[in-house]
TrEMBL record:
<comment type="function">
    <text>Involved in coproporphyrin-dependent heme b biosynthesis. Catalyzes the oxidation of coproporphyrinogen III to coproporphyrin III.</text>
</comment>
<keyword id="KW-0274">FAD</keyword>
<dbReference type="InterPro" id="IPR050464">
    <property type="entry name" value="Zeta_carotene_desat/Oxidored"/>
</dbReference>
<dbReference type="GO" id="GO:0004729">
    <property type="term" value="F:oxygen-dependent protoporphyrinogen oxidase activity"/>
</dbReference>
<keyword id="KW-0350">Heme biosynthesis</keyword>
<comment type="pathway">
    <text>Porphyrin-containing compound metabolism; protoheme biosynthesis.</text>
</comment>
<keyword id="KW-0963">Cytoplasm</keyword>
<dbReference type="InterPro" id="IPR004572">
    <property type="entry name" value="Protoporphyrinogen_oxidase"/>
</dbReference>
<feature type="domain" description="Amine oxidase">
    <location>
        <begin position="14"/>
        <end position="462"/>
    </location>
</feature>
<dbReference type="Pfam" id="PF01593">
    <property type="entry name" value="Amino_oxidase"/>
</dbReference>
<dbReference type="GO" id="GO:0006783">
    <property type="term" value="P:heme biosynthetic process"/>
</dbReference>
<protein>
    <recommendedName>
        <fullName>Coproporphyrinogen III oxidase</fullName>
        <ecNumber>1.3.3.15</ecNumber>
    </recommendedName>
</protein>
<comment type="similarity">
    <text>Belongs to the protoporphyrinogen/coproporphyrinogen oxidase family. Coproporphyrinogen III oxidase subfamily.</text>
</comment>
<keyword id="KW-0285">Flavoprotein</keyword>
<dbReference type="InterPro" id="IPR002937">
    <property type="entry name" value="Amino_oxidase"/>
</dbReference>
<keyword id="KW-0560">Oxidoreductase</keyword>
<dbReference type="InterPro" id="IPR036188">
    <property type="entry name" value="FAD/NAD-bd_sf"/>
</dbReference>
């Protein structure tokens, strides 16, 4: 029988909680797992709140059902099943979204891959592609180890309008970043793989779509009927970790047998000795902890930048809303809002008999955070005014509202990001195999990616400590 371990997980988001579940399933019996969370609550960007007497997401709202590479259940769905929550999965009842262009709403064209079209004729309603630019040059679009900004590739092949009116708002809705800055390999891995073989961008999009196994009519997204907060609570229970909220880990030092954590206030800190540490905090706080034991790794990950956003949710009495899940706003439209979701239209389980609709708008783009300096009242007023403008009809006065600010929430992956992370992890593993990195800052955004990142890091810790046992 193996001796139990002591493992510290720094960061109580879904990445850390998924890691705790994996450790509990695979580590020796009696292993002590402690989760240190600097804020007062677990879950990170998964936060279910309440507005107008109804649960609503103040952070991420859904997860992908399938793994885009294999077609199997995504890591999020696998975790949901492991936690006994499969019966709570629900899917959107309205899937069509729109783009706000030229002062009106137009349906987002089908057949695109994160806005990059595989059929140029289908995007003519929102953008005019460059004529004859996507020619076969006799070689693949990307070299074997090459990475480029999404915007650079698409502008070269399809022209500015396709990027500005379609690709940029699609990426902005996910990353709050710009297509001209974001890595193709990180944000669109399937397209990057196809671009290493195909000679045209249309061909690469079609190849990537063909390679993605998906059953016709199968739902793409899911959430939980009780809110994603139920996933956080269930993962915390299953992981069986000691949870320390309002507990900042300030320093990290290697010892002869593992690691010593300095936790809490500067004047009278708590010193904790453990066998292994899993860092799931954002890249910059991780870099501060790594500066002593692994300065090269700290320098590599500490340069990652983040975008801040605000999510404004309004409860509107019987508004006139189109039968859409929501809409995206290109930056060229000059509006403060960059996206909006009609919660009670998109999700049938949220519809109310009293006619109150829940509408959420997202504010904040990378490099243009001045809008987030507005007060909550000014943000609400601006969002209400702009929603009315886009919809072409005055919206009723909200009966309730909520403003959720997420500072430094969304990583900005510049070209070469995954190679830099891989090199940093190789260096860290060689020097300190019982210290691992996981989370959105390294592997990508989205609940499935974060879950898989935490589980993979947990497996690395298990291997470093000598394998599983009972």
């Amino acid at each position: 029988m193996r001796q139990p371990w002591r493992v510290a997980i720094v960061g109580g988001g879904i990445t850390g909680l998924a890691a705790a579940v994996r450790l509990r399933d695979r580590a020796p019996a009696g292993t002590e797992i402690t989760v240190y969370e600097q804020s007062g609550a677990l879950g990170g960007k998964l936060r279910t709140g309440e507005i107008a007497g109804q649960p609503v997401e103040f952070g991420a709202e859904s997860f992908l059902m399938r793994d885009s590479a294999t077609g199997a259940d995504s890591a999020a769905v696998t975790l949901v099943r492991r936690l006994g929550l499969a019966d709570a999965i629900v899917h959107p009842t309205v899937g069509q979204a729109a783009l706000a262009v030229d002062g009106g709403l137009r349906p987002i064209p089908g057949g695109t891959l994160v806005g990059v079209p595989g059929d140029l004729d289908r995007v003519a309603t929102v953008a005019t592609p460059a004529a004859d630019a996507d020619r076969d040059g006799g070689r693949p679009l990307l070299g074997a180890d090459e990475d480029v900004a999404v915007g650079a590739l698409v502008r070269d092949r399809f022209g500015d309008q396709v990027v500005d009116r379609l690709v940029d708002p699609m990426l902005g809705g996910v990353y709050a970043g710009r297509a001209d800055d974001l890595s193709l390999v990180t944000t669109m891995p399937a397209l990057a793989r196809a671009a290493r073989v195909e000679h045209t961008l249309v061909g690469a999009v079609r190849a990537a779509q063909a390679a993605a196994p998906r059953a016709p009519g199968a739902p793409v997204f899911g959430t939980l009927a009780g809110g994603l907060g139920t996933l956080v609570a269930a993962a915390a229970r299953a992981g069986g970790a000691t949870v320390r909220t309002d507990a900042a880990v300030r320093e990290l030092h290697p010892t002869a047998t593992g690691w010593r954590l300095t936790v809490g206030p500067t004047r009278d800190p708590e010193l904790v000795d453990v066998d292994a540490v899993l860092l799931t905090v954002p890249a910059r706080p991780a870099a501060r902890l790594l500066a002593g034991p692994a300065p090269e790794v700290a320098a590599a990950v500490g340069g990652l930048d983040y975008a801040s956003v605000a999510l404004v949710t309004l409860a509107l009495p019987e508004p006139e809303l189109p039968e859409l899940s929501g809409f995206l706003v290109p930056a060229t439209e000059g509006l403060l809002i960059k996206a909006s979701t009609f919660f009670t239209t998109k999700w049938g389980h949220l519809r109310r008999p009293d006619g109150i609709a829940l509408v959420r708008a997202s504010v904040g783009r990378y490099g243009d955070e001045t809008s987030l300096q507005l007060t909550d009242d000014d943000l609400v007023a601006t969002v209400h005014r702009e929603l009315s403008k886009v919809l072409g009809t005055p919206l009723p006065t909200p009966v309730a509202r909520h403003v959720q600010r997420w500072g430094g929430a969304l990583p900005q992956y510049t070209p070469g990001h995954l190679d830099r992370v891989a090199a940093a992890r190789t260096t860290l593993r060689a020097a300190h195999p019982t210290l691992a990195l996981a989370g959105a800052g390294y592997d990508g955004v989205g609940i499935p990616v974060c879950v898989r990142s935490g589980e993979t890091a947990a497996e690395e810790i298990i291997t470093a400590l000598g394998g599983s046992g009972s």
